[in-house]
User: Fold this.
Amino acid sequence: MSQYKKIYFVPLVAHENAAAKFKELAEGRGKQVGDAINTEYGIERPELAAQIVSAMESLSSSKLELVTPKVEVPITSPANTRATPEQRARIGAFLDKYKVYKYPRGIGGAEGSTAFFFKPPNTLPEIFWTVKGSRDGEPWKPLFQRTDDVSEYSTAKYYAPGAQVWG
Amino acid sequence: MSVTGRSAEACPQAPNGRAFLGLAPLVGGLDAEASSIACPVSDQPCLVALIFLSVANVPSSFPPPTTPEIVPAPLKQKTIDASGFEKVHGKTVRPSTAELETVQQAAVDNCGKVLGLSAKKLEQATAVLREHPGDPGAALRALGAPLLGALDATLSAARSVTGNGEALRASFTAIEAAHAEWRGALVAGVGQRTVDGTLSEETFRAIGKMRAGIDSRMSALRVEATRLGLSTAVEAKPATEAARIDAALARINAPSFDPARLKGWMAQFDPADRAVALEALEQIDFHTLSDVKKDVRDAHALLSAALTRDGFTSGKPGELFDNVDFSSLYAAKSGAFVGYLYRNENKIRSSCFKTLDGLGASNTPKSDRALVIVEDYTGTGVQFLFEG
Assistant:
């Protein structure tokens, strides 16, 4: 991919965290982005982590561009004008109360608010999508159906075949 | 969107000792409205069957069941003459004009009460009806058609706004007024039926279909108005849990979504928390198939401008994208599905789309080419940057 003169990333919806990363790259802060990648992917090998940071530092704003019709903001963010401050506070407390698995406010605490008819992103609060949760000893039944798998990650090797796909 | 109504319940406002029926679900057709009431005097079916519509959920307190007991009768056992009045023993039973006017007023008042319409709105609606004497259906259609068009246009505009939606406030306000006027006309128009019988079943059904379309759009518009911080411009959110669930279902409105799932999901929350669960759900922006098709068109409009700006395309119609490769991050994942919709909606040749592996293996020089990665969603951007 690096051979291309320019790469356009075109998600239909981008969370503000993603938009921020592209902004960091455009402002020459590739190291911060590289560090974020290493953290998110749990990369511990120093040489690989350094390679990723170096790759991000070498990306120039003229080479990479985010093109999206919608930037999503977290549900409880003041930037979310869909909810009043009181509603945002109420919803935040509610999401924390209903921690049925590990991500009450969605993966990375993103508090995403987008669901597609074919799949909800896992950045939504988990009450909407997790099939691994439980409450009062009962399995949690999410509102939207999502099929997850680990096959694209190196961590897949730690999962038994039957546990590689769920949802 | 569900329509809540009551079949065969006696109305406490029935004048002159007569009972009339408040029968709601127009969408379900008039079959459900075939009922009769035993007259306490003659022991014959009572002559007046007043039909009205419930646009919103009927409050549980309206109207409380009262005597006399109502015995629904199948439609086939009941005959209605050309004017819409019942025939009893082959003879049309027609009440006096004074009786009917009283019944009509009771119906209008009652419906206005249920729908929360002000006297002023009812007066406006009645004025509209007067402009179409003898054919309230025409008045309803005349009011409804431009309202539907305005709703569609405003919804489309509202959904494309990601920041300040203040520019849409005037549109929202105008639609609120038009919607109230239409609802008022609906109420008064149905009341009119009891007097002149000018609304045929077909007209009722047609109006019901229009009403369902308008209601679902109004629900969606309220969501957008709330999102844009303009919720005061349109009616307040439905107050009852049932109405809010209906609104949520209308908003999701996808064949892939089972409505029963929403109720099952809600049941997992403590009763005291269900209102907040609905608030959280109301924050979710659900993209149906038609929404996603619009999304890919919007995305492509932005991309096309960027490609032309950077010299990869000419910007002229019929672009072949000879200097551009399209792909998605992973095969057989949602990005690939969106890539398919993207290609189809934007009329791009399939040969422009390749797998990332295929692009890597290709010997075509890339130094003067652009690569476009189409995906449905990115949470952090890290997956793209990492894979890229």
Residues 73-166 of chain A form one domain. DSSP finds four helices and eight strands in chain A. Chain A has a mean pLDDT of 90. Residues 42 and 49 of chain A are 10 Å apart (CA to CA).
